[in-house]
């Protein structure tokens, strides 16, 4: 019998795709917001402060809902999640955005679905059908091909940092999704934030600038976004979606993230986005649909 949602209207896999899509939309604002923030905040300080603020909220949620502590065997995966998505990805992208624009860095997210799928196989025990990999690789190639068509970055350090960010993030996504099956989606990110707090909080104080008087409102709003939405709320939907719909399958929704992010980069940061992006977007949507169909 097919499992259904609590309301009895949507099956579990459909719920997973909806939750995953919401998570991707939220994450799409992360790189443009980080780009704005690192113009005025030190990238390491920004990473530690956003983790600290999100962790405080996470602690409040865990206390409010009286959540039990994770089992002993769950702490090691939580450390991996914390290193991957709480510290690793935010720090590496913040450092990269000192060298490249958010529009350029966003296209590297096109590799994230493939990385997530690979780690979903290695860590989550998933076995997508061969045709799935065809659509997954094709979608990644489309996004990366578009990036190369715009010209290689003049800052190879920024590109290398983005590639490393994709790898650690893919591992963190897969590990968190696997853990969320037993611990719960929002609980995973909250406990991962708690794990990071003993490191993030002291470093936030240590690296804090002597004065915040010169920080603009857009920078503060960007900090608020990456702390509240990118670091906490987005993961509530994302990990739930991965657990419900499958790590490899729902992870393909990340192919759409570069295009949402580029739209934001154009609208908020006035970075140039070519008309050719529309054609690539349509092709990528086709790859996501194909991957969904042949994921299992």
TrEMBL record:
Protein name listed in UniProt: DMT family transporter
One cellular component term from this protein's GO annotations in UniProt: membrane
Family: Belongs to the EamA transporter family.
Species annotation: Pseudomonas haemolytica
Main location: membrane
Membrane topology according to the record: Multi-pass membrane protein
Keywords for this protein: Membrane, Transmembrane, Transmembrane helix
Annotated SUPFAM superfamilies: Multidrug resistance efflux transporter EmrE (SSF103481)
Domain of life: Bacteria
